[in-house]
Amino acid sequence: MRSLTELDGVLLVDKAPGMTSHDVVALVRRKLNTKKVGHCGTLDPLATGLLLIVLGRGTKIQDLLMSEDKEYVGTMTLGTTTDSQDADGQVVETKPVPDLTREQIDAAFAKFQGDFYQMPPMVSAIKKEGVPLYKLARQGKVVEREPRFVHVFAHEIKEVRLPEIDFRVVCSKGFYVRTYSFDIGNELGCGAHLKALRRTKSGRFDLQRSVTVEDLQTKEPAAILEKILTLPEVSRLRGG
Fold first, then answer.
1. Model confidence pLDDT, tens digit, residues 12-38
2. What CATH number is associated with residue 45?
3. Interhelix angle 102-110/177-187, nearest 10 degrees
4. Based on the domain organization, do 96 and 24 belong to the same domain?
5. Are 238 and 204 in contact (CB under 8 A)?
6. Can you tell me the distance from the alpha carbon of 178 to that of 176, in angstroms, rounded to the nearest whole number?
7. Distance between CA atoms of 13 and 204, rounded to whole angstroms?
8. Which domain holds residue 30?
9. What are the residue numbers of the active site?
10. CA-to-CA distance for 120 and 136, rounded, in angstroms?
11. For the segment 168-186, what is each residue's pLDDT rounded down to a tens digit?
12. Are residues 174 and 76 both part of a single domain?
């Protein structure tokens, strides 16, 4: 069994809904009684799924792990836009959803494939003059943002049951799936917001070796320690 003094590596956590990424970090820190803990790629409270937690010397490769591509499955709801672009926000506008054909939906998704610019939402952790945008948004402020260059490697429309569309998207770092839903809704002429989101992959990592939040809350530290990927394992998994 690995000892608490050898906490160098990566722990894959399946984040539960309703908690922040920082909540998960705090939970791991308490469970394993260690201070050097970080996370790679923030998940909004609404989102679930894969969160990479770096421990000890694993924090030195945090930026490297964050830079890798991500895969998500999600559900967007057409006809309603919100100030946060997801279901946690306040409704801004409601429009009737037209009787869209599959061809129209395919064409809207196809517009956001490959390289394009994405405008980050106001409710985001991006900073403007040192202040996170979401704090300004809470004050009712809207400030100018710089569009971000992003890339969608692949997408799949899994099911259409209007006003909802289930989809899968593989994207670059810094990509907002909330904004993706918002932009596709605009393209379809009725607006949309992100109803549900789950991260299924980050680089070469997936949920197969993950621990749940319930595991972190109820299992003994030794059981969690066994799940930590060592730095050599991480390097092998990444093909390096």
1. 999 999 999 999 999 999 999 999 999
2. 3.30.2350.10
3. 130
4. no
5. yes
6. 5
7. 15
8. 4-67+204-237
9. 44
10. 14
11. 999 999 899 999 999 999 9
12. yes
